[in-house]
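Closing statement on the GLG sub-project.
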Amino acid sequence: IQEPQLQGQDTGMQCEDDRTGIGVETLKRAFLDNLFYVQGKFPALATKHDYYMALAYTVRDRLLQRWVNTAAIYTQEGSRTVAYLSAEFLMGPHLGNNLINLGIYNQVQQAMTELKLDLKELLAKEEEPGLGNGGLGRLAACYLDSLASLEIPTLGYGIRYEFGIFDQLIRNGWQVEKTDKWLRYGNPWEIARPEWAVSVKFGGRTEAHKNAQGRYRVRWIPHKVVLGIPYDTPILGYKVNTANTLRLWKAEAPESFDFEAFNRGNYYGAVDQKVTSENLTKVLYPNDETYEGKQLRLEQQYFFVSCALQDMLRIMLRQKLPLEQFHEKFAVQLNDTHPAIAVAELMRLLLDEHEMDWEPAWEITQKTFGYTNHTLLPEALEKWSLKLFSSLLPRHLEIIYEINWRFLEQVRHKFGTDEGRIGRLSLIDENDGKFVRMAHLACVGSHKINGVAALHSELLQKTTLLDFYEFFPEKFTNITNGVTPRRWIVLSNPKLTNLITSCIGDNWIKHLEDVQRIETYAEDPGFQQEWQQIKRENKVNVAEILLDRTGVKVDPDSLFDIQVKRIHQYKRQHLNILHAITLYNQIKQNPNLDITPRTLIFAGKAAPGYYIAKLIIKLINSVAEVVNKDRDIGDRLKVVFLPDYNVKNSQPIYPAADLSEQISTAGKEASGTGNMKFAMNGALTIGTLDGANIEIRNAVGAENFFLFGLTTEDVGALRLTGYRPREYYEQNPQLKQAIDQIASGYFSHGDRSLFKPLVDLLLDKDPFMLMADYQPYIDCQQQVSQTYRDRDRWLQMSILNTARMGKFSSDRAIREYCQQIWKVQPVPVQLAAEKTGDG
Ligand code: GLG
């Protein structure tokens, strides 16, 4: 088999097909052709965006060849397929990633240069599909990359939000949200498939009826019907021919039937109904890890899940597979509880629409689903009021009652009548009003339940899902998260990629464990020198971005200390800012202080309704304003908040970090994935024993990790004995000074009321224990500063971090899902040309 990618050389302009060829001349010709025939422009009139589109179509043509072949092989072989159900896919820009995975980055760069265009500028033109909030959505995107790279047949199913996560502006230090009109200029990466549209029902009532065999079945008479239209995006693996599909659903009003009947003569009414239907997939809910009991959100969840399951049934019918084999054809993963209604929906489809009996339907359902839990935070646990649920999904509620009744019978059988336990396990929460507990539905309806890091899985079994663990321990497992080295090293950090590859070859890109081989260079002065040089160039790049976007000038030789992630109290950006204030005060008290110069960089969005998180952004910007303009401080300390953190903006950040801030209260961050992206790019971590930090520290070595703070056990014990945050404040003059400054208006032009809610929260309740962790954090940061002064030691630590991060590739995580949960094998794809051997 010929390698599908040819590195750098031209394969001859005569014999190459304009739609598939990858020689520089062919690429140039295809690009100009697309500019003319797709964008309808000649070069003199073309905008940068036209050029971006022409290039995107040129790349898409090369994907299509692989995509169509992949679909043909999967159909022909009836391959077992992973269906990854997720309300969020935070894909990031496609163009750069596709160039890497096709192996044509260099050729395309050369082709653009020869056409007097700058590939970097064209890449910057892509509007990223921000169809997710944070870690959970980005994880889904990394997993799709790994699934394709490992040649696993996969369908990603989700929602085609017309507006993704809002764009963040900073005005006067506050976050302002702007709608994300990502589809405004068209999306060259998707193909609509209206021929595979499905109908989704909502509301109404159910009734019994007799079927042809004279047996009673249930029929659902809905109040409204919405059409789901699939939009497909190819997901190409790295240097393989596999191109899987991300299938996102858009809601539309059905053209015919009840619509016309009910609205004849009422044109406006009819259009109104169209508008209501299309509202369904209009906008992504911008909450990360907080559940909001909104009807539209439940409608979104049910809509995409029903579309996905109906689509899978259609595929089975087309491949002439009996529905009894559903669980053999598909392994369906629930990315958190957002798609958990799938358990009841598959039951409904099998029972009501395909007239299966309960027992076989239930067996198939349980064998089909796996459930990944992503958080222990109680405010994130989804529960829907019975009132809302029954008005929207009356049939599903009946099915859930039946599942619950049968399940609780089994519980009684195993544990006897322990009403406390039964109440805790029930799918219905009756403590304070009545609710359907979606995590319980997901647990009962799945054959495997996993957490996303070792500590998180352990805590799930010991706390949140303890009763379920006691009932079916064999269902529980852990799969620690991972991230794709293609986007997060190769695309984001090309210089580091070249250095590593020049030493050990490029096998590490597919097998990240191999990067270990650079360990032998960790103390090599020449290698260290190059390592440092690359880090510096990456920092200069970020310094330019910061100057451009914020007007703040930073010193690339200072220690880049970075915290980028959603703004959340448990992630403790405000602990980081207390350190900034402490450093500021130390310099002010001793203007000649010889401290290690630092640049503190923050970025991240706050949920629009999360008041304290927004106040934390305002605090960061307020401290930045005072620190950055203070002449006594000079270049020794800078604080910058980079607006509009998203995948695109994050890519230059990880390669430029010296220090990665992973400082959540122990037990709160399920895994974290930014922690992995930083360490892979040679940043050292300052962190707590939380989430995947623990495993990262074990991998890189305790001596190469800056650990501080309370453990999960400490947090629990302290809470039990009565936590009094104010005592830490009163007994620690540095801490007291910092808090008093915030309270006194030192950072807010004398306004004492502005940060009062935050100060009161910290002194009275401090739910995330910043006060207890403050001094250990400051001491640890002092160690960081000391170590940074020992250049050779720091470089060695940095190299060892990258070298030992192999485990945190999403390829490893996906292999574990395939073996432990999905039981699915690779299906390699050959291009037709390769099979016949004729070119
Ligand atoms: C969650 C968790 C993160 C986790 C991510 C992916 O809070 O710790 O890394 O899922 O599993 N909502 C999230 O980002």
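Residues 48-77 form the longest helix (30 residues). With this model delivered, the sub-project is considered complete and its resources will be redirected to Aim 3.
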